[in-house]
Amino acid sequence: MHPGPPGVDLPDGADPLAAWDDFLAGIGVPPEQRNTRSAIEDPAGHGPRLFFQQVPERKRGNQEPVPGSQWRLVRQSIV
């Protein structure tokens, strides 16, 4: 389950990702940076929040990085 943006009450059936796109556009985040990180939460509130972050490709020797992107999962513990 993707949570909605801060301060946005999503009606039942609303697309939270579309709400995030509108929210990020409203605060001036450029389109090319809007999909570089994301988080999901357990709908029941028991599991950890999972944060995904786009990271640069590793270089292979002196070559340029391979096109595409890698994603890293960072576990955030619940206090």
TrEMBL record:
Protein name as catalogued: Uncharacterized protein
Naturally occurring in which organism (per UniProt): Micromonospora sonchi
Top-level taxon: Bacteria
Region of interest (Disordered), ranges: 30-49
